[in-house]
């Protein structure tokens, strides 16, 4: 973190009491949300309550052995992040301390308390290329140059939003190209403002924007059930609730790998260490399907696992969304994964209880809904103050105890987000992945995204999707009857509907995240698979109407090949589906 690098640290007070991560201090000259350093070891903390001369601090590290009477030092600055080149391809803890740098300092993966490091490398030089000239007028947030941060992403250097007032401009009096550190001045304005590649921004304060638009372009994910039935818009919000083992983390990791966002910010908030280890090990090895470079070249990971201090977990989502906003201001589309917001809410609950605040439902603080809203409201598709457009798509996993969707975190999240991907333990037990329940899930973005799908995939995309929804709805009703009387007791047309629904579920909605081909399915292929199933449906019902027995219809050789479309290489799909549709049509028509 950056608070101590350019702020004079002074001894202001003494510790009065310690209760886990919550410390009270007396005679501390501080403001709300100021960063302070607690105890002899200088543990980082944040002011969360001030009452008279008593200041309450949440400490971001383990507080064992911290005792009353030890000093508390204030910085006079709020909890902020370092913004600049070097954030991508980095792994941070919840308060933006780079874990690889801390490990190098300690010589061990087990970090000592009180160790700090800036969020970005202050000594590394970057090649700065100006995009404006001396004499040009610039306003707040305007782009003055760029730096090749990674092989995939150019980092835009901007006038800090707080450097000028809204509507105010200033003239560039000097600007240079060359290699600079993030603290070197690369440009100067006529009002004396010096522009560096590095900025600081308070994590709890949204960065300013010009306007928030209605998103009309989907964040294509490569997951058929998401793109086909429950699409998410670029700049949209989504929740993935589900019980233990149902696939929340795998779904989010698939989205992080394959969603067509320019930047990915992945927040591991209170999840198991082995899951974050898998992410940290996998991502540097994964090729980016968009550029062919390493996926980490456009990814920032924030790892705050369940064995890390609880207070840092409360701040990690703010750290992540602030980094996402910085790249949004450059005109990039950012996908932010928060896994999981339930662990974040539990951290709030623990700190709230130590503050002896009045508990709300199930012990969560009364402001739970407000905090969730503040987080998701920072997502969206924005007109930026510098004239660019950018988006943040926020996807939060929710881990309801026992899979109970009526618990407070899930319910409050549902009131805020517009896309709901409900994971189902029964589907997971049947090895149907992704285990997203198509009867409980929904997307409120479908209508506003239809035009994009019509123009970019197929004109009848909405019609095909609605047909699939109708079949799945009918299948859901028929399954209740089947449980009572058996499938054979149904009329033949209803038996055929069950067969068509089975192929929709197995060949279209089911997807193998470990298969080299099937793990990612472009929208065009998603459309072709469903089209092939509908061809079977239309021809099969024609045959049934002509008097062909249901057993003969379902026994034709071509139909099982529907299950192989997903694993067919993308460049061979059109030929495979054309041949399959011809074979199904020919075989079914030969029966009558």
Could you walk me through the main structural features you see in this protein, from its secondary elements to its overall organization?
- The strands form 5 sheets. Strands 8, 18, 19, 20, 21, 22, 23, 24, 25 and 26 form a 10-stranded mixed β-sheet that branches. This protein has a 6-stranded antiparallel beta barrel with strand order 1-2-5-4-3-6. A 4-stranded antiparallel β-sheet has the order 12-11-9-14, with no helix packed on it.
- It is globular.
- 32% of the residues lie in helices and 23% in strands.
- The chain has 15 helices and 26 strands.
- The protein folds into 4 domains: 10-78, Elongation Factor Tu (Ef-tu), domain 3; 126-197, Beta Barrel (OB fold (Dihydrolipoamide Acetyltransferase, E2P)), CATH 2.40.50; 217-446, P-loop containing nucleotide triphosphate hydrolases (Rossmann fold); 461-589, Orthogonal Bundle (Bovine Mitochondrial F1-ATPase, ATP Synthase Beta Chain, Chain D, domain3).
What's this entry about, in short?
This protein is of the alpha+beta class and 592 residues long.
Topology:
Elements: E1 10-19, E2 22-26, E3 34-38, E4 43-51, E5 54-59, E6 71-78, E7 80-83, E8 90-92, H1 99-106, E9 126-130, E10 137-139, E11 143-148, E12 154-158, E13 169-175, E14 178-180, E15 185-189, E16 194-196, E17 199-202, E18 211-213, H2 224-228, E19 237-241, H3 248-258, E20 263-269, H4 273-282, E21 299-304, H5 310-329, E22 333-339, H6 341-354, H7 368-377, E23 380-383, E24 389-398, H8 408-414, E25 419-420, H9 425-429, E26 442-443, H10 446-456, H11 461-485, H12 492-509, H13 523-545, H14 550-554, H15 573-589
Parallel strand pairs: 8-21, 19-24, 19-25, 20-21, 20-22, 22-24
Antiparallel strand pairs: 1-2, 1-6, 2-5, 3-4, 3-6, 4-5, 7-17, 9-11, 9-14, 10-13, 11-12, 13-15, 15-16, 18-23, 23-24, 25-26
């Amino acid at each position: 973190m950056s608070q101590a690098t350019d702020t004079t640290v002074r001894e202001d007070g003494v510790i009065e009491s310690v209760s886990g991560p919550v410390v009270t201090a007396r005679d501390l000259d501080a403001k709300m949300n100021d960063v302070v350093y607690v105890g002899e070891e200088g543990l980082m903390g944040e002011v969360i309550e001030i009452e008279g001369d008593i200041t309450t601090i949440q400490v971001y590290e383990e507080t064992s052995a911290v005792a009353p009477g030890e000093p508390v030092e204030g910085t006079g600055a709020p909890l902020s992040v370092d913004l600049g080149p070097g954030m991508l391809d980095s792994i941070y803890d919840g308060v933006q301390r780079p874990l690889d740098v801390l490990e190098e300092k300690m010589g061990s993966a087990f970090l000592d308390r009180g160790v700090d490091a800036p969020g970005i490398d202050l000594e590394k030089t970057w090649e700065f290329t100006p995009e404006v000239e001396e004499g040009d007028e610039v306003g707040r947030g305007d782009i003055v140059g760029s730096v090749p941060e990674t092989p995939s992403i150019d980092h835009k250097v901007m006038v800090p939003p707080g450097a000028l007032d809204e509507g105010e401009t200033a003239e560039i009096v000097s600007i240079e190209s060359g290699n600079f550190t993030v603290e070197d001045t690369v440009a100067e304005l006529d009002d004396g403002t010096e522009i560096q590649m590095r900025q600081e921004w308070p994590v709890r304060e949204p960065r300013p924007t010009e306007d928030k638009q209605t998103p009309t372009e989907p964040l294509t994910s490569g997951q058929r059930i998401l793109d086909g039935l429950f699409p998410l818009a670029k700049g949209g919000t989504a929740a993935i609730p589900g019980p233990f083992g149902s696939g929340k983390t795998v779904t989010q990791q698939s989205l992080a790998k394959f969603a067509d966002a320019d930047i990915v910010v992945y927040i591991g908030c209170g999840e198991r260490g082995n899951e974050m280890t898998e992410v940290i090990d996998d991502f540097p090895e994964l090729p980016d399907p968009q550029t062919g470079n390493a996926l980490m070249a456009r990814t920032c990971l924030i790892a705050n696992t369940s064995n890390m201090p609880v207070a840092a977990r409360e701040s990690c989502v703010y750290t992540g969304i602030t980094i996402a906003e910085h790249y949004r201001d450059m005109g990039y589309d950012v996908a932010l994964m928060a896994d999981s917001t339930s662990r974040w809410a539990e951290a709030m609950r623990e700190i709230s209880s130590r503050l002896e605040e009045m508990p709300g439902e199930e012990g969560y603080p009364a402001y739970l809904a407000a905090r969730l809203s503040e987080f998701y409201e920072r997502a969206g598709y924005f007109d930026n103050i510098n004239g660019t457009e950018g988006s943040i798509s926020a996807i939060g996993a929710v881990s309801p105890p026992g899979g109970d969707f009526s618990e407070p975190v899930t319910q409050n999240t549902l009131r805020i987000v517009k896309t709901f991907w409900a994971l189902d333990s029964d589907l997971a037990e049947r090895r149907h992945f992704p285990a997203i329940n198509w009867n409980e899930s929904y997307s409120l973005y479908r209508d506003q995204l239809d035009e994009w799908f019509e123009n970019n995939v197929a004109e009848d995309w909405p019609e095909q999707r609605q047909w699939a929804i109708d079949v799945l709805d009918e299948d859901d009703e028929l399954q209740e009857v089947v449980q009572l009387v058996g499938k054979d007791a149904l009329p033949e047309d209803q038996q055929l509907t069950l067969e068509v629904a089975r192929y929709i579920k197995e060949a279209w909605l089911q997807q193998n995240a470990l298969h080299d081909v099937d793990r990612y399915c472009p929208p065009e292929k998603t459309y072709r698979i469903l089209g092939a199933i509908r061809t079977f449906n239309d021809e099969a019902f024609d045959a049934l109407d002509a008097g062909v027995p249901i057993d003969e219809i379902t026994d034709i050789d071509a139909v099982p090949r529907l299950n192989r479309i997903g694993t067919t290489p993308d460049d061979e799909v059109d030929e495979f589906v054309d041949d399959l549709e011809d074979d199904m049509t020919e075989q079914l028509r030969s029966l009558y």
